[in-house]
Amino acid sequence: VKAENWWRKSAEQGHALSQYDLGQCYEKGWGVERNMALAAEWYTKAAAQGNEYAIKRLNELKGE
Q1: Which DSSP symbol is given to 63?
Q2: d(CA 47, CA 53)
């Protein structure tokens, strides 16, 4: 739960890796209720900044 709080603060400031990590929290239900729509939203923000992990995860979620 504490990690999710720190990732959120950092993600909201635009840090791509934290956005990816927060997406993982929502996808896996780590410290938050599992929510695939929010996971995809945070992955998309990270991917827009070129985060390769987020790009890969989004493609996997889309079945590509």
Answers
A1: T
A2: 8
